[in-house]
Amino acid sequence: MIFSKILTTWYSNNKRDLPWRQTKNPYYIWLSEIILQQTQVKQGLPYYEAFVAKYPTVFDLANANESDVLKLWQGLGYYSRARNLHATSKQIASELEGVFPNNYKDLLKLKGVGDYTASAIASICFNEISAVLDGNVYRVLSRYFGVDTPINSSKGAKEFKQLAQELIDKNNPAEFNQAIMEFGATQCKPKKPYCNICPYNTGCIAFNENRINELPVKIKSAKAKKKHFNFLVFISEDEKTVLEKREGKGIWQNLYQFPLVETDETINLTDLKNRIENNNLLKGMPFELLQYNKEPIVHKLSHQHLYTTFWIINVNKLLEEGILISKIRNYAVPILIGNFIESFNFD
């Protein structure tokens, strides 16, 4: 088909030299695809290289401690990806003797592997004719064919999957899938795409109808909830502090944080001090409370915005067993707390 021919020709002249494009090893392809979900290549590349260096095989990753995996992942966000990555490596190592499924249907049975990742691995590693759908692909197809069905709807997912499946090069699905993702990432970009030098511009509906900024269509998500986080950063005279492991389900599951006081609105130093004293958090011990950041740090997540203040609590000693401040960087923490640790300079 002309569409796929134009695409693969463009790809051969414009593709970036990326390490996962030099292999058909499903472990490395899987690793790259999980890392690059909701992550740009320039941000994900150093993480990919770090994971490959530390865990060169699926058995190495399976034998790792989850805390080490989360620490290596720190800064990428969406930590459920890292937890699923580790769980899946164990599944493959123990149940499948280290051998990845070689088809789309069986790849879907792996934890954390959905339609996109299964299609990518199946096509790139095993040449299965299974079209990928990620944000880049949705954008290219929506603009070129003028499709205004919301991409984050069940109808949209089905419609675009069918369209992509019709277009895919049956003789070389691996190259087609990589080409259309690359085209969306570097040519048909979300903002300021290179339409004037696009090989598709004569037939692109969005370009010819001046609808580039309208497509693709996405259903607006619910308004993000606003939360107020107050992290208590204990510092004792013997240079120890307190970190707590977050248990249960949640975005930061199994990561570490400073003790947290959540409030309905921004709280001032006096009110927080009274709350600490009234809740007997320090059991009558004298302490000095200092506000580190004068204005809340706004940390935006997909479903909530965290208005965060760090409070420094100087004490003579800790009532519970603390950790040495010199060891604080050994713990996997959310990027919000990691940034604070670096800016506060505990050294």
Could you explain the architecture of this structure?
With 347 residues, the protein is of the alpha+beta class. The chain folds into two domains: 2-208, Hypothetical protein, domain 2 (Endonuclease III, domain 1), CATH 1.10.340; 225-344, Nucleoside Triphosphate Pyrophosphohydrolase, CATH 3.90.79.10. It is built from 14 helices and nine strands. It has helices at residues 2-14, 26-36, 41-54, 58-62, 66-73, 80-95, 104-107, 115-126, 135-145, 154-167, 173-186, 205-208, 269-278, 335-344; strands spanning 225-236, 240-241, 244-245, 256-257, 260-263, 288-291, 297-300, 304-315, 323-324. Strands 1, 5, 6, 7 and 8 form a five-stranded mixed β-sheet that branches. A two-stranded antiparallel sheet has the order 2-9. Helix 9 packs across helix 11 (173-186). The longest helix is centred in the N-terminal third of the chain and has 16 residues, at 80-95. The N and C termini lie far apart (61 Å). The mean pLDDT is 93. Adenine glycosylase active on G-A mispairs. MutY also corrects error-prone DNA synthesis past GO lesions which are due to the oxidatively damaged form of guanine: 7,8-dihydro-8-oxoguanine (8-oxo-dGTP). Residues 35-186 form the HhH-GPD domain.
List the helices and strands and how they pair.
Elements: H1 2-14, H2 26-36, H3 41-54, H4 58-62, H5 66-73, H6 80-95, H7 104-107, H8 115-126, H9 135-145, H10 154-167, H11 173-186, H12 205-208, E1 225-236, E2 240-241, E3 244-245, E4 256-257, E5 260-263, H13 269-278, E6 288-291, E7 297-300, E8 304-315, E9 323-324, H14 335-344
Parallel strand pairs: 1-8
Antiparallel strand pairs: 1-5, 2-9, 3-4, 6-8, 7-8
Helix pairs in contact: 1-11, 2-3, 2-8, 8-11, 9-11
